[in-house]
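During the reporting period the student researcher (J.K.) took over the structure-prediction task from the postdoctoral fellow and processed the backlog of single-chain submissions. One of the processed entries is reproduced below for the supervisory committee.
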Amino acid sequence: MAHNRGGEPTAGRGRRVRGWLYVLPALAVYLGFAIWPALNTLRLSFLNWDGILPATWAGLGNYTKIFQDPALYEAILHSLVLIVFFSFIPIAAGLLMTALLMGKVRKGMTFYRIVFFLPQVLPLVAVGITWRWLYSESGVVNQLLDLAGLGTITRAWLGDYGLALVALGLIGTWVMSGLCMMLFLAGAQKIDPSLYEAATLDGAGSYRRFRHVTLPGVRREITIAGVITTIAALAGFDLVFVTTNGGPAGQTNVPALLVYRLAFNEGDIGGASALAVVLTVLVVAVVSTIRYVTRDRG
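J.K. obtained the following structure tokens:
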């Protein structure tokens, strides 16, 4: 085998070089479209800039202004409420659907997966427009309530001051439940069938088999689902923008929507960048907490 002067096999070095050649295009795209914009956003957060005139140094002024604005805390609170609908309820629903489908549906499994996963395939803009119509005063939701004899509670749900956030959250539940179910089904199908057989021989019923075999087997998938759905709740923009645009009276404002308004409505690029940095830190903190709580302690 040929060696270079340093004693390293030439063939081994060649494989490493070829490996880097495969990785470099993806790395270049990631650096150009993820890392560089993030670093540039951090830089802009320390500047006063309207996007046109020359920028001036602001130091921590943008951050001070952001943290003194009550709208930020209200938007964060709304996002934390949305986590319940985008994450907790979909994960619970996904686990329930996994328990119902595992071992009972064979021929129609593909059909069920497609139906439940369909909301993930649809663009969120289309989902938002559809649900805005469903929630309208003459929409399907109110028509069904009328048929059920509950016409007295019908309303324009996304325009109701007290229920708009809940109505928005239920859209997120519908969108995310299928994704969670798909993740859990994929994880459950990797569990050794002998574990279920052993549990059955020990007299375990369906509930105990699910609790002691299925749940531990999909722990990683639960963590992944928690991370994905939490990010969707905290950093979501398009669904809120299309359905309520933060209304009524700011009851569905979220941080990402405030970033958009600061940048494009008020021309405060520095303030929008500072808020984006704060939102990023919030997302990382919450996701890190989820990963810590759900980590495998075995």
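The committee noted the following: The domain at 63-293 is CATH 1.10.3720.10 (MetI-like fold).
J.K. will present the remaining backlog at the next meeting.
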